[in-house]
């Protein structure tokens, strides 16, 4: 059984980049002889399914090299200048998400979406920049935003659940850099979770002949 597949094709190797704040992405080599476009699911053995969009693909040496970005890969689209004389976070956020063609996670706290805004102006800029400004200024300090494995956009306060990984190997620990090198049975570790006694801020999974390795930066 393949360690992971993408679009039904076995993954020969590559990287998966999972930030606690921002957009996850994957650069994968697929055992495919045809180009793949549009929506795709990355199935991870003993782990989550990542739903994203293929934004680039190149055939090389009989396999397909792909770049996959979370959700609909829409945060690079430009917003239209608009002034909101009032309303709530939901009002502005709904417009941003619609422009990007993305979907909000149903797990967002309704109280956060109902937070009032005395006034807000969106300039012409990438949706991702407008979203970061809204989270950083219009929401409580410490509010995070990221794309979840299912490709939806989540915003809220961290709860730091357990990672639920039952087996891993700590290969190296670098306290000054706040970084761990891990050997894993599967590239299933997610950010914003707790592994042992450590809070995970960012994960880079590497898939190769030796299996799955990961570098984890700590919060």
Architecture overview:
This protein has helices at residues 89-100, 110-113, 127-138, and strands at 4-6, 9-19, 25-30, 38-44, 49-60, 63-70, 82-84, 120-122, 144-147, 153-156, 168-174, 179-184, 194-195, 198-208, 211-218. Helix 1 (89-100) packs antiparallel against helix 3 (127-138). It has 2 domains: 1-73 and 158-219, Baseplate protein-like domain - beta roll fold (Phage tail proteins - horseshoe like beta roll fold, Roll), CATH 2.30.300.10; 82-148. The protein contains 3 helices and 15 strands. It is globular. The strands form 3 sheets. The protein has a 6-stranded antiparallel barrel with strand order 1-2-3-6-5-4. It has a two-stranded antiparallel ribbon with strand order 7-8. It is mainly β and 219 residues long. Helices cover 13% and strands 43% of the residues.
Q: What does the average pLDDT come to?
A: 94
Strand order of the largest sheet: 1-2-3-6-5-4
Q: How many beta-strand runs?
A: 15
Order of helices and strands: EEEEEEEHHEHEEEEEEE
Oligomer state equals single chain
Straight-line N-to-C gap: 34 Å
Task: Say what the CATH topology of the largest domain is.
Answer: Phage tail proteins - horseshoe like beta roll fold
Strand content: 35-45%
| CATH H-level superfamily of the largest domain | Baseplate protein-like domain - beta roll fold
CATH 2nd-level architecture of the largest domain: Roll
Outline type: globular
Top-tier CATH class of the largest domain: Mainly Beta
Number of domains: 2
